[in-house]
Specification:
The chain is α/β, with parallel strands linked by helices. It folds into two domains: 204 residues, Pyruvate-ferredoxin Oxidoreductase, domain 3; 75 residues, Alpha-Beta Plaits (2-Layer Sandwich). The protein is 33% helix and 19% strand. It contains twelve helices and twelve strands. The strands form four sheets. Strands 2-3-1-4-5-8 form a six-stranded mixed sheet, sandwiched between helices. A two-stranded antiparallel ribbon has the order 6-7. It has a two-stranded antiparallel ribbon with strand order 9-12. Strand 2 and strand 3 form a beta hairpin. The longest helix is centred in the first third of the chain and has 14 residues. It is globular. Bound molecules: iron/sulfur cluster (SF4) (2 copies). The site of one iron/sulfur cluster (SF4) has 12 residues, from helix 10.
């Protein structure tokens, strides 16, 4: 039996990295609680979010809430849109309380140990070990699920769907809050993502997805076979010079922003397919495609 939030009051900690919609997800949960008649206090830290840094939001609801901050060991549920941020937030979790965590990994450049071998100093996806420590782990590949239902940017809605199964709020409040906060054009994809998250069953689907996700975040298949990778850039999602993470992070200096602030591949022949740019882009604007997969 999970030690999750009660109908009367709850402490919810949402964590992730910039661009994953943590702040939006927190606003939606706060709206749901308000629509359900609760008092709500919320606090956010997102100073480095535009650079792919960590983002967190403390949210507390109840009949009357004095302070927004959750103390260590007092979170009734932690929702993490990124695997490592979920691990980092574990000290906040109340013993036995559920951890809702995305299996997607955003690997910081400082974690690169050997880019040619694709080795990274980053925690493995050890879901079963985590479950032994935490008890109630609801881990899923929210990014893959969101892609499947229409938009990778709706990964936060997948996790909100999981969270909805743990909170006492009515379905109508969730639907109204989702409609009020997500951009109108992406509302259908977010609704589908929410439903997909709510329909997940635990733990079987969780662990099967973790196994399918594989042991290491970065391969460099293209380099290994001597065939350059291809990059697909979704221009509408790229923040250009306001971000520029991929341009600075590319070890081979393949990327640049042109005079119109569009991301361009200036040295395609040098691209090793290391996928750092894809993994670091906080807006999912880059997809690295291994050219030799098509050639098989
Ligand atoms: S494609 Fe590059 S510049 Fe554009 S948002 Fe992603 S990391 Fe930033
Ligand atoms: S463009 Fe991306 S995949 Fe290619 S070398 Fe640079 S970071 Fe790696």
């Amino acid at each position: 039996m999970s030690a999750g939030p009660s109908a009367a009051r709850g402490n919810i900690l949402l964590v992730g990295v910039g661009g994953q919609g943590v702040v939006l997800a927190s606003a939606i949960v706060a709206d749901v609680a308000l629509r359900s008649g609760a008092d709500v206090k919320q606090s956010e830290v997102h100073g480095m979010s535009q650079r792919g840094g960590m983002v967190s939001s403390h949210l507390r609801y109840g009949p009357a809430v004095a302070s927004p901050l959750i103390e260590a060991g007092q979170a009734d549920v932690v929702v993490a849109t990124e695997w490592n941020e979920g691990l980092r937030a574990l000290p906040y979790l109340r013993p036995g309380a559920p951890l809702v965590v995305n299996l997607h990994r955003v690997v910081p450049p400082g974690a690169c140990r050997d880019r040619l071998a694709g080795r990274f100093g980053y925690p493995p996806l050890a879901v079963d070990a985590l479950a032994r420590e935490v008890g109630d782990v609801r881990a899923c590949d929210a990014l893959a699920i969101a892609r499947r239902v229409g938009s990778p940017r709706a990964l936060n809605s997948v996790l909100l769907g999981v969270l909805a199964t743990l909170l006492p709020f009515p379905d109508a409040a969730w639907r109204a809050a989702l409609a009020a906060h997500v951009p109108r054009g992406s509302a259908p994809a977010n609704e589908r993502a929410f439903e997909a998250g709510r329909a997940l069953r635990w733990p079987e689907e969780t662990w099967a997805q973790a196994a399918a996700a594989g042991p290491a975040p970065n391969g460099n298949e293209g380099l290994a076979r001597g065939v350059p990778a291809r990059l697909a850039v979704t221009e509408a999602w790229c923040k250009g010079r306001a971000c520029g993470i991929c341009v600075r992070a590319c070890p081979e200096r393949c990327l640049a922003l042109d005079a119109r602030d569009r991301l361009v591949v200036v040295r395609p022949e040098a691209c090793t397919g290391c996928r750092l740019c894809e993994l670091l882009c906080p807006d999912f604007a880059i997809a690295v495609q291994d050219a030799c997969v098509e050639a098989r």
